Amino acid sequence: MSGLAKSATLAINERSRDLLAQGKQVVRLGLGQSPFPVPSVMERALQLNAHQKAYLAVQGLAELREAVSRYIERTEGLHYSSDQVLIGPGTKELLFHLQMACDAELLLPSPSWVSYAPQARILGRDMQWLSSPADKPDLDPEMLDRYCRQEPARARLLILNYPNNPTGSTLDPDRLETIARVAREHHVMILSDEIYSGLHFDNQHVSIARYYPEGTIISNGISKWAGAGGWRLGAFIFPETLEPVLRNMIALASESFTSVSAPVQYAAIHAFNDNPELRDYLENCRRLVKALMLWSWETLESAGARGTRPRGGFYLMPHMEPLREKLNIQNSQALCEYLLENTGVAALPGTAFGRAPDELSCRLACVDFDGAAALAAVRELPAGSEPGEAFLAQYCQPTFDGIRRIAAIFQD
Length: 412
Ligand SMILES: Cc1ncc(COP(=O)(O)O)c(C=O)c1O
Prior knowledge:
Layout: H1 8-21, E1 27-28, H2 40-48, H3 62-76, E2 85-88, H4 91-101, E3 105-110, H5 116-122, E4 127-131, H6 141-150, E5 156-161, H7 173-185, E6 189-193, E7 216-221, E8 234-237, H8 243-254, H9 262-272, H10 276-303, E9 315-316, H11 323-327, H12 332-343, E10 345-346, E11 348-349, E12 362-365, H13 371-380, H14 389-395, H15 399-411
Parallel strand pairs: 1-10, 3-4, 3-5, 5-6, 6-7
Antiparallel strand pairs: 2-8, 7-8, 9-12, 11-12
Helix pairs in contact: 2-9, 3-9, 4-8, 6-7, 10-13, 10-15
The structure holds pyridoxal-5'-phosphate (PLP).
């Protein structure tokens, strides 16, 4: 554990709290949690199941595992039995248990979500960043191939996350197919983190499990597209070939978390089952998120930021190179401090996601607004029409202002 720093996300949150305590305004684009309420079909089910007080099976409630396997069948056309599903208290905990259960070198595209690398460090696992250029954040299959050739016999775990936190980009089927070919050749196990699948702007998410079913574990949950991060529930879906890993994880779970809270498991069935209320919820969340994220990206890009146009989820990772000379900012930590002090926007530095310290990148989580009110207003828009700038200015405050203030720094 020595040398393990406090998570960058929490540190920026504490600094924001200090500023708020001094009476200053802070736009919280640091911590990435869904702004939207939990769908009411799930809330009702949670209330109705408050009496469920018994410990449930370690692997998870059979009905919920059944619903998860049907969900994957419906969305990906892939068949898994409910015995191939494991339910845990959030995918973060399952990811940690997966690294505990397999002694493998961890391969991470850079940038990647903040917690994968620290989990490897805590467990003493070796890890390797596979860094992409700033303008092409997706994993380059040739880089993966070159790296694996160096020590062909080594056991390896690659974590892919798409739609991506922090960039908002996603992997297209042809890229997934090429990565799958390389992974198969080198026997690399893939953990496919698809927690933002339901927030692909055009509802076009495709899993790499379609191309590499035997080597892929799918990770998904209710934290992001069902707004229920605090409920703590996630699911892993294993291929038959990786049954020994599933068995190890169940054994670990039986000695650690035992099982996820019973009422939450009963309620989560309604997130994975097809029902009109959930479909309407997801459609309108996507409509709003797409409009807000594309407006935010275009505003920053026309001001001078560079990076990737988002295609899903709540995040952007702008690169702000023009500010290096203009403001004499030399690294991403200093960039975030400047943003917080001068625009009141809390953001996370690119270093937290595995980027080089001297790269002027940061992650913006565009989630600081009243999601319930915004969602209700989107539902009132005529079918087929998208929320425009005036709508975003009215319903997506303070995020809307925060993005404008960042854009203004380039022009001042
Ligand atoms: C990419 C990614 N994976 C996994 C998680 C963990 O989600 P949870 O533990 O709530 O399922 C998060 C949460 O921020 C995330 O952004």
